[in-house]
Input
Amino acid sequence: DARVTQTPRDKVTEMGQEVTMRCQPILGHNTVFWYRQTMMQGLELLAYFRNRAPLDDSGMPKDRFSAEMPDATLATLKIQPSEPRDSAVYFCASGLGDSHSYNEQFFGPGTRLTVL
Amino acid sequence: GQNIDQPTEMTATEGAIVQINCTYQTSGFNGLFWYQQHAGEAPTFLSYNVLDGLEEKGRFSSFLSRSKGYSYLLLKELQMKDSASYLCAVESGGSYIPTFGRGTSLIVHP
Output
């Protein structure tokens, strides 16, 4: 049963600390998305990779957030330094898509981040 | 940019039918998704519409009118487990990256 995995599932940290979230996409999927979900803003796209190349990170605060795909089986989202306003659930999703077809996304269970 | 509008919350009775609407304004429309998200869980795919009309899948159906910028999700024979948030997402432009609406929280009561 192929599924997207994310670690950690829950993270509580103090303001100013570095946070790294990891995602393992479904084997064979070539697109990876990072989303942030809050009650106020809903589901916001932070970054998008296709074939490990970053295609869109316009939704990500560049000064403190960074997203990478060191290899096809791992995507990371890093916040440094973290702030209380970063508290949210961060979802990773993967899919099969290209510039000519739709992207059905398979979501991971999410990382619930709390920054005190 | 895109503007996607859904009702914030709806309530319905078990066994009934409910229609959740989604309106959007966008340029270069490609397609529209509906996702279901139970509290504390990840969104899961329900449907994808590209062409005008109704697509039925079991108890769930999704309708699209491209000219009106309008879609709805129809849930029949409601069950308690259908209580969840329903997210409308629109793909547009050349990137095929969906933009999500804020979601409609559906509460099904006995």
